[in-house]
Write a structure and sequence with these properties.
Blueprint (H helix, E strand, L loop, with lengths): L10 H9 L4 E9 L3 E4 L6 E9 L2 E5 L6 E3 L4 E4 L5 E4 L7 E2 H5 L17 E10 L16 E3 L5 H13 L6 H23 L8 H6 L3 H10 L7 H8 L3 H12 L3 H18 L4 H7 L5 H12 L3 H9 L1
Parallel strand pairs: 2-8
Antiparallel strand pairs: 1-9, 2-7, 3-6, 3-9, 4-5, 4-7, 6-10
Helix pairs in contact: 3-4, 6-7, 7-8, 9-11
């Protein structure tokens, strides 16, 4: 048997492709207790992430009093760039990390204040996304995703990343960048699989719902289809009213609102590739440019022509 594995698109792959993951800034940090670092809120639509590659530490989101203990192999993702503190203990006074590393160039290093106690090694950084607030990947996610250590692909990616980041070998920069990509996807996928309580009111939650999942996949497979609540309900095999209620509960918005938002996400990606507005409109279900442009600006907050020029101009 011969089976090609490249470009097999599922919903997670489609969303990741559509939002065009940008550059990742990353750093390896070694500290000994006592230590604590405050990471201010990210700007520019970046998502923060941390991997504990050795030792133990605590994380606490700004404005909360509920620290979480992290151990070797644990991964946390902060989808909305929320400010937070990492430290050897929840009550250790923190320094502002940005003040110490803001001017560092790639490859440079600086010593951070720490003691002579138990060591902790972290791989930290942030991921850039699209320049607007309509990212379907992040919408509906909590401020912090905690993925404890475990077996499987994510654990393997953490081990590979730790080994590669610990040394400087030929091609290490490229390898680290690719491993960060893999780790980010594995972290999202692992978190998704573990959300078995239906609490994720986003497309993540919709995928796991036995009724809503087929409809979400149908929307992603054919964004140009003239979807109605009735036609989506037929995909789900339930009545229109029952489907609408269940979709809104699982995804966090009405079915046709999700259809429109996904269409505009696909359209934004096509425009960023240089496609003309007239060619994009029918590919996302619009018969004329005016109706498409009106919907695009309503959802994305910018006219499609301006979005295209900003990306390719």
């Amino acid at each position: 048997m011969f089976e090609r594995l490249d470009s097999r698109f599922d919903v997670l792959t489609q969303v990741l492709e559509a939002v065009h993951l940008g550059s990742a800034m990353s750093a390896r940090t070694e500290l000994r207790a006592p230590w604590a670092l405050h990471f201010g809120p990210e700007t520019g639509h970046r998502a923060g992430f941390h991997v504990v590659t050795g030792g133990w530490c605590w994380v606490r989101l700004d404005g909360t009093d509920a620290p979480i203990m992290l151990g070797p192999g644990d991964v946390i993702v902060l989808p909305h760039g929320t400010g937070h503190t990492l430290g050897d203990r929840p009550d250790t006074p923190a320094i502002e990390l940005a003040e110490r590393v803001a001017d560092l160039a790639p490859g440079q290093r600086v010593m951070l204040p720490s003691g002579d106690g138990d060591p902790t090694t972290l791989f930290c950084g942030s991921y850039s996304f699209g320049p607007d607030g309509t990212n379907p990947l992040l919408r509906g996610l909590p401020d912090l995703l905690h993925i404890p250590t475990g077996d499987g692909a994510l654990s393997a990616a953490v081990l590979l990343l730790a080994a590669e980041a610990a040394g400087i070998q030929s091609g290490s920069a490229l390898v680290v960048d690719r491993l960060v990509d893999l780790l980010f996807v594995y972290a999202l996928r692992t978190w998704l699989i573990r959300q078995d309580d239906g609490s994720a009111r986003s497309w993540f939650g919709g995928l796991q719902d036995a009724v809503v999942g087929p409809a979400v996949r149908a929307i992603h497979d054919d964004p140009a289809c003239p979807w109605t609540v009735e036609s989506l309900a037929r995909h789900a095999g339930v009545s229109r009213a029952a489907f609408a209620r269940r979709f809104n509960h699982a995804v966090g918005e009405p079915p046709l609102a999700y259809v429109t938002r996904w269409r505009m996400t696909v359209a934004a990606g096509l425009l960023e590739q240089g496609e003309r507005i007239a060619a994009v409109a029918p590919r996302v279900g619009y018969d004329n440019e005016f109706a498409f442009a009106k919907a695009f600006k309503r959802v994305r907050g910018i006219a499609p022509g301006q979005h295209r020029l900003r990306q390719v101009g």
